Amino acid sequence: MAEPSQENVGITISNHLLLNQQLSTGATGSYTRLLQALVLACKIIQRDVAKAGLVDVLGRAGTINVQGEEVQKLDELANTTVKRRLSASGEVCGLISEEEADIIEIPRQYPRGNYLVHFDPLDGSSNIDANVSIGTIFSIYRRITESTNDMDLQDALQPGVQQIGAGYVIYGSSCILVFSTGQGVNGFTLDPSIGEFLLSHPNIKTPAKGKIYSINEGNYGYWDEPTKKYIDWLKHGYSEHKTHYTARYVGSLVADFHRNLLYGGIFLYPADLKDPKKPQGKLRLMCEANPLAYIIEQAGGLATSGRERIMDIEPRYIHQRTPLIIGSPDDVKIYQDFVEGRRP
Ligand code: AHM
Ligand code: MG
Fold first, then answer.
1. Which residues have C-beta within 8 Å of that of residue 186, sequence separation ≥ 6?
2. pTM higher than 0.90 for the full model?
3. Which of 72, 218, 267, 296 is least buried, going by the fewest C-beta atoms within 10 A?
């Protein structure tokens, strides 16, 4: 697919996808149909998120609303929406959601396509009641098993380098969809008056170095020594780095990631050494770390677990977690220097 130029700013996402399909030799339209189904799912979730405050007034999730129906939790609703729309596209052979333990089978009435999608339908959902930005994250692979049947675990457990597309949507002050299919990163903002995502951020590149660091410092006592030293250095090593780092942490991954992507900086969710539930940190490799790693690398940044590049990790199970250190390349390299003992 070709990189969009500044002249394309304002074109609709459908137009952008179709143009790229025309420019890709041998394209059948399957991938475009898959992406269009994802876009539609995200528009529906945006509509539901925008009504979340009203749901709270008219009936809490899990209670019975005025029509006598049970009010569904927003993250369950988002999960159902993505499943339905992607299944009905006829382009997927299976789905894997953060919300469900196993591979999701595609209902029998739909054909099995060649793609599979890992997704987190509503990341940061603990922030919903406070009106803080939340998001959907997705990661697309081509199936590797040769079959017209359902996908199997081998298809699901591909390393991040095999992704053929990834992205996220933020339901925030405006609704923005950021994605890449391997030729750079583009951002589309939803114009609610026409119900269309329009190209607003063509060819996003992250700054080589930033001034922002994002980490849950309440967990300081649980980090490994290199991470503690790195954060101490960011806060106290002013004479060396000659800049003033500033802390920003929303606690909603898409919001923290997106801000740092645009402004530059580093986001860290390291391993948690004292919490037996989080020896690998909190974030999931397949539906959170890999797609954001794909985006950041496409934008010129880096993503590591501290031990290895995120996209090189060989997944062993679907809901595997990983430490995630991601952002501007120079900042991630300095973190790596601390890990590898090049800085005291
Ligand atoms: P979730 O998938 O249960 O919503 O949890 C993931 C969220 C991320 O959005 C965010 O980066 C992280 O949890 C924050 O965790 P913490 O509250 O431990 O700092
Ligand atoms: Mg999540």
1. 4, 16, 178, 179, 180, 199, 201, 202, 203, 204
2. yes
3. 218
pLDDT tens column, 197-253:
999 999 999 999 999 999 999 999 999 999 999 999 999 877 777 778 999 999 999
Q: Ligand 1 site: residues with CB under 6 angstroms?
A: 98, 120, 123-126, 216, 251-253, 282
Q: Which residue puts its alpha carbon closest to atom 11 of ligand 1?
A: 253
**Type of residue found at 185:** V
Residue nearest to atom 7 of ligand 1 (CA): 124
Let me know: does 22 contact 2? Beta carbons within 8 Å. Answer: no
Q: Give CA–CA dist 210/203, Å, rounded.
A: 19
Identify whether the C-beta of residue 292 lies closer than 8 Å to the C-beta of residue 303.
yes
List of domains in the chain: 6-201 (3.30.540.10), 212-339 (3.40.190.80)
